[in-house]
Every structure is written in structure tokens, then in C-alpha cells.
Amino acid sequence: MTDDRPLGADEATFLAAVRADDTARFALITERYRRALRVHCYRMLANYEDAQDLTQETFLRAWHKRESFKGHAALRTWLYRIATNACLDFLEKRNDRTPVPAGLSGADWEVLYLQPYPDRMLPEDPQESVVARETIELAFIVAVQHLPPRQRAVFILRDVLGWPASKAADSLELTVASVTSALQRARVTMREQLPDRRFDWRITDAHELSNDERGVVKSYIDAHERNDLDGLTSLLRDDLRFAMLPDAGTLTTTAKDAVEGWVSGGLFQCGHDDWRGITTTVNRMPAAALYLRTPGDPEHRLFAIAVLRIADGKIAELTGFDATGKPWLGLPPAL
């Protein structure tokens, strides 16, 4: 695998660390790629905790294979190759890391292992993230999971990272023809899963919440804090898509039925009616972190995070995640 490029500072430092068997220098030079590699693994796996583990596995493999790095390719390319193949090895061993048929009407497939990605863990340099906002949003991550693992890898390397076919083929030990064929099939599936999206994934688009988005999230939190069911209903579109992961059951429902379903499930009832919330973002999407105070507890405890897709001032999609026991979200455990 060869990049037509002069030896860079990172490559030279890495080679010096390898020759000296210097673990400290090796760790220092590879650590700067951690965030970008973790995002890459997350796109492959849709699970933040798995992505953390596979990023660490990438560094372990890189150390064991350090003698194979000759500086002919960029260090970044070499690490991405190792990370991609580590993810493929993981997926080969796990039969629970594919979408499953939905248990409820209104959705065909569900990704029960999906986890949110904390924005604070994204690469700080927009050029380092090498992706548009859309490629970290939940809808994109879910759509990618419908691709077979090797096809998924081809799609991410080619259409997200922008690698040429020859470099992707080298990394996956495939022919260029095989990579081209896999990419064509992957694009068909992605267009089926995301029919309303543009497909120039490599345009970098830093995102801050708009005033409208902030307003909707604030109103969503206010409705919880006031137990205002009418106000909550008014924020939801009548074709709302709702899921509460990792529970099965993504469904399209009316706003009224959605709120009634939450109430019948115990929310906004005695013991589940003392809420606080804070506005945040995950997957570069607006989100509300919800805190619940149960009887006898002096504090509101982190309960769930609701990730919202807002369209025309209404909540079109709401994906809820159990937020307990996830310190990596970077949220206060109590308010």
C-alpha cells in the first residue's frame, strides 16, 4: 500500500519510535489519531462502547505490527487500515451486530445496539473529522448498518473518507473491480435507506444548533418540567418516528398516541413526574438530557437522553436512550 507523498513528520517520528522500540513515543504519536479512529469505528459498529474497544484494539495491533510500517503510506492510512480490519474481525464474530426485524408495525428493521455519540468526543479539527454533519447523524449510522460488513467498509472508505478505489482495495485485500462493485451496491442500499438525503458525504459542515432547534429543545424540556402533556403533544409531528433503545419497537405514531403511550407506560405519573432537563447535542443533533427525581431522593438523577430530528419547528424523530451508567456521555449524573 503506497501513497504518492513525501515522508511526513508523523511518519518519520513513528519510524524513529519503531526503530528505538520506544513505547512512549509510539503512544504519543498514535494518540493524536484516537478521536478520528473512534469515529471511524463508530460508523462501522454504531455503538460507542464497541468503538472505544476497537480503537484500543487498533493501537494494540499497530504496536504488534509496527515493523510492517515502512513509511510508504501515510501513518493515518495505515492506522485506518488496521482499524477497519479490526472492526471486520469483530463483526465476523458477532451475530448480534446486524439490524433485526422490527417487532412493531411502522418500521421494517431496528438497530438495537445503536448508541449515541457524544459531540465532545468528535475530532476538534473539522479537517480531521473528514466528514459532513450527515455522516454522524443517527439516520446515517442506522442506514450504514444495513450494508454487509465488507460492503460497509468499502462505502465508508470510498464515499465518506474519500479514498481512491486502489487504496481501499489494498486496505481490504480486494481487487479494484471488487471494490467498485461493492460500492455500487452499497450506494443503492443507502439511497433506499436515505431517499431524501444528498450524497456528497465529504463536504465538511460544522454544526451549531439553530435558534429554532434550541427553542424546540427548550420547549420539550419545559413541557417535561411542567408535566404539560398538551404542550408536549404540540411539539410532535403527527408522523413522529419514535424509538427507546435498547428496547425493541421503533414506530411511526401520531403525536397524541405517542404521548398517551408514554403516560400509560408510567411517565408523568406519580413517581415519574418530577423532571429537570438540559439542552445538549449528540451525533451533531439536538438532544435533551432528562433527569428524574424519585420520591425520597434529594436530587434529580440522569434518566434518559432524547435525540431529536427537528423539521419545520416540530419534532419529526425522537430516539431515546437510557443514559444511566454511561459516563462517556459527559453529562452531569445529577442536578
Automatic annotation (TrEMBL):
The keyword Disulfide bond does not apply. Transmembrane segments: none annotated. Gene3D superfamilies: 1.10.1740.10, 3.10.450.50, Winged helix-like DNA-binding domain superfamily/Winged helix DNA-binding domain. Residues 31-95 form the RNA polymerase sigma-70 region domain. InterPro entries: NTF2-like_dom_sf, RNA_pol_sigma-70-like, RNA_pol_sigma-70_dom, RNA_pol_sigma-G_actinobac, RNA_pol_sigma70_ECF_CS, RNA_pol_sigma70_r2, RNA_pol_sigma70_r4_t2, RNA_pol_sigma_r2. It comes from the Bacteria. Keywords: DNA-binding, Nucleotidyltransferase, Sigma factor, Transcription, Transcription regulation, Transferase. Residues 140-189 form the RNA polymerase sigma factor 70 region 4 type domain. It holds the Pfam family Sigma70_r4_2. The keyword Plastid does not apply. One of its GO terms (molecular function) is DNA-directed RNA polymerase activity. Interacts transiently with the RNA polymerase catalytic core formed by RpoA, RpoB, RpoC and RpoZ (2 alpha, 1 beta, 1 beta' and 1 omega subunit) to form the RNA polymerase holoenzyme that can initiate transcription. NCBIfam families: PRK08241.1, sigma70-ECF, SigX5. Belongs to the sigma-70 factor family. ECF subfamily. This is RNA polymerase sigma factor. It comes from Amycolatopsis samaneae. The lineage of its organism: Bacteria, Bacillati, Actinomycetota, Actinomycetes, Pseudonocardiales.
